[in-house]
Structure formats: structure tokens, C-alpha cells
Amino acid sequence: MTGLSPKAAETLTRWLKDPSVDESTKAELKALADEPKELEERFYRDLEFGTGGLRGVIGAGSNRINRYTVGRATQGFANYILGQHTGEGRPSVVIAHDSRRFSPEFTLEAALVLAGNGIETHLFPSLRSTPQLSFAVRHLKASGGIVITASHNPPEYNGYKVYNAEGGQLVPDEAEKVIANILEVDSFNGVKRISREAAESAGLLHWLGEAEDEAFTDTVAAVSVGREEIASTLGRDFSIVYTPLHGTGNLPVRRVLEKIGFTQVHVVPEQEQPDSEFSTVKSPNPEEREAFTLAMKLGEELNADLLIGTDPDADRMGAVVRDNEGKFVVLSGNQSGALMIHYYLSRLQEQGKLPSNGAVVKTIVTSEMGAAVASHYGATVFNTLTGFKYIGEKMNQFEQSGEYTYLFGYEESYGYLAGNYARDKDAVLAAMLIAEAGAYYKAQGKTLYDVLQELYAQFGYFLESLESRTLKGKDGVAQIQGIMNDWRTSPPHEIAGASVTEVLDYSLGLNGLPKENVLKYLLSDGSWFCLRPSGTEPKIKVYFAVVGESLQNAKDKVAKLTNQVMARVDGK
Predict the structure, then answer these.
(1) How many CB atoms are closer than 10 A to CB 356?
(2) Is 197 helix (H, G, I), strand (E, B) or coil?
(3) For a Cys-Cys bond, which of 11, 32, 245, 346 suits 43, CB 3.0-4.6 Å?
(4) What is the reported pTM?
């Protein structure tokens, strides 16, 4: 076709001619005949299966997420599972999905392909959270898991995340094997699929329900370190506004908070029900203040103590607290993490339950403040690459060796986990812990903001910021790579008044970590910044961290560092 690269033209022709492609898909493609740029974007490559799985714009095409790209990925995953299976009986996979467009359809497609390969599937009949999927894989002793979600991406996206038998997202060596299997699958002819009726009659399709929900809720609640006080008095005197942002968190978050004794939990009514368009927000992302607009309005009306928000698949939690003037302040992921580590470890210590070999795990782009707090309580701190799969991998290592006892893991992007029941971040657990901490300190006459100021005074004024640039499509991929190449080949010697003391290029595989396209620059004043292409979105992310002599000094330092680095990133 005119205006298309040979690769895109060849793949498009194949989709249009293949009898296994349904007519509605072909019609969608034919309607784009006069839009060569759009067709090029849809067919210039296959949608990439990264270390976490697939994530892309919904639509027809090899570079879009649809029943055919989901089917092909599932066939590759099925081949991988069958190759790994050595025990008796059939291997099995648990599948969950969120509230996005086509999530139920993609879930069933994956299940029927697995069934076509003789693999049992356990499906939730309606939306469930990503952490519950991780829990269910472990609880049911399954061979793996799949969750259909695009996390906090815009409405036009969906995704497909794959989990191993430990309940964690695939780490690179596992992902490479799955990818190799996928690449061997013909997009259409190589996918084995049977009907729902055939799968159910053969005992290959099972539906999960209330018992699994109850097991998850009970397990999360068991991690509480203040349940007795919450249930007796504190839970009645602490007012919470919660928004699930139209996603999966609504029921599990409310169940857990109720189970440990919180009685004043108010859900934002406009955002309570699932909505694939996320119609009340620009982005269903609890990292952004705008996502809390309606929660803040309700919080003011109710004079709430704490606002909590979770993203669509309920693996990320954001919290909003009152400052010393009574105004709502959105906590960063680093701040929430430090507060939860302080609360959780201090309560374990009070109760004589803090192990001598405790471990806290964080990522290389996460603030050092939480590490300082954890070290204060005698915990050993470990750093991993970005992505909770690496924290889950550390948990597995601790469990196998017994050398360390896992206490808490977190990343600056609002992902947290305490307890050993899952291998992915859990916003349900985080909502419980941050609420518990808020109620506990309120009984002492303090807000969470007050406690944060105490931590700054004790450990240092750590402050962080994050900038990102969205660069979509084929050209965007090249632009992001160009930015990384520029910084890699011409590193600065001085920036924001501080000399660069060390450049950490993680593409070389530093400190025993897997190779990853990340650059981190350490500065002489204790600051650092880090450049990292996103693994799930068409973005380059730039992280900044400073330590100041006061909060204002830290704000000035992070602003200066951010401005100078981003000027170069933007080519100014």
C-alpha cells in the first residue's frame, strides 16, 4: 500500500487476507485506507512483549492490543508453562481483569487458548485487583497467572501482565523464555483455542468467587499491627474518604478497612462504580493531584482526616493528608513509604515482633529517606531495579535462604507491600496501613503530616521530584533512544552547582542486577538524578532527589537540579 513500509504493508495484507481474522476487524482496517500514517503505526512492528507483558492501544493491528495479539501471547505463555511443568496432573493458570475496555473479552480469550492447550484456568467472574491475582496464584498453587489491565494508562489502553508460580511478574530470564516462545507462534494458525462450552465440559475452565475474596481479605487484614486498637476505639474516631477511581479497589479496600474496625469510610460516589472511560478524571492515576479533586471536595464537606485513592487495578495507592494549616496535601510515594515503614516497624518493635534479620527492599529510583528510617530500626535495606517484580524476586530469595525476613517493599511510584502473601504491590494493604497509621497518630494528637515533619527533622530533609516526557509512536521511540544516547556518551561533569561524582549505567549490569537501560548520576552534595525510559508507556522519566538543610533549602535544590537537567533533555 502507498505510504507504508514493506514490513507494515506485508503484515496488513496478511491480516486482510487471513480467513481467521473476523470481518469487523477487517472493516476497521479497511476504513483506514486513506490514513497511511495510522496504518504504519498499527503494523510497523508487533506489539512488544516486555518483561511485564503487553501494553498498548486497543484496536486492530499487530502493534495494537486485540484478541489476536492476546491470543498469540497466550499461546506462547502456554508453550512456556507446558515446557516448565514437571509435576503430576495439569498445569493451571489464574486470570483476573480490571474495568477497562475489552478486559472481560481478553480474559476469556486467554482462558480459551490456555484450555486449548490442556491448561486449567481459574477465572474471576468480574473485576478483581492485581494483588488479589498475585495472592490467588500462590493460594491455589497455580503454575502462573495473567491479569488484563493497563494500570493507570489512559482509557484507550489495555494490557496483559504475566505472573510466575510464585505470584510475581516475570523477571528478565523468565520473560526471555516466554518471548522466545511467542516469537515462534504464528499470529493466527499457531494459536490453539477451544470454545467456552468445550473448556467447561472438559474441566478446564473454573470460576472463582466469594471464598477466594474472603481468603484475600482475611490475609491482608492479618498484616495489621494495630487491629485491636482500631477495632476498640480508634477506628470510630478517624474519618476516611476513599476513591477507587472507577477501578477494582472499591470492594476489597472497603472490606479490609471494615474488617479491622474502621467505621467512617466514605466512598466518592461519582467514582465508585467501574467505568472504562474513567469519565471523572483526566487520568486514573493516584500520583496526580487532579485525580483527588472530587475526594477533596467530599473530604472538606466531611472534615475527613485522610483521603485515599487507588488506581484501576488497585496495585498503587495515593494518600492525601492535612498539613499544619488544615489544608490537603498529596503525599508522594516516597513520603507515604517512609511513613508506613516508620509506623509498621515501630509498632512491630513495640510489640516485640521486629525480627533481628528484617529486610526492607526499595528500587534504585526510590528516596533514601525510607532506607534511613528502616536502618534506624535495624533492618537491612536492599536496592533493586525499577519494577515490583524485582522486589518479589528478593522476597523469594529471602524465603528460600532464610537469611532475611522480608518486612516491607516499595517503589516511589506508589507501590507498597508488607506481609508475605503476594509478590506484587498491593494498594489494598497500603490503604489499610496508611489508615492505621493515621488513626494511631491522631490518638496522640498528631497528623500524618506532623509525623512526616518529625521524620525530616530526625533523618534529613529528603525531597524528590519526577519529570516525564511523552513521545508517542515510531518517532517517539527514536527520540527517547536519542536522549539516552546523548546522556550516555556525553555525561555532565557538573550540574546545579555540584560535581558529578559517579555515573551508574545499569545497561552494563551493575551490582549483580540485570541489565537495564537506566542512567543514574550521583552528585557531590548527596543529590542524584536518573534517566529511565518507561517500560509500559511511551515516556522517558527523569527522577530527582536531594537532601537539604531545611525543607525550603531542599525545595530550592530540587527545583534548580530539575530545571537544569530538563533543559538539556528538552534540547534547550
Answers:
(1) 7
(2) helix
(3) 11
(4) 0.94
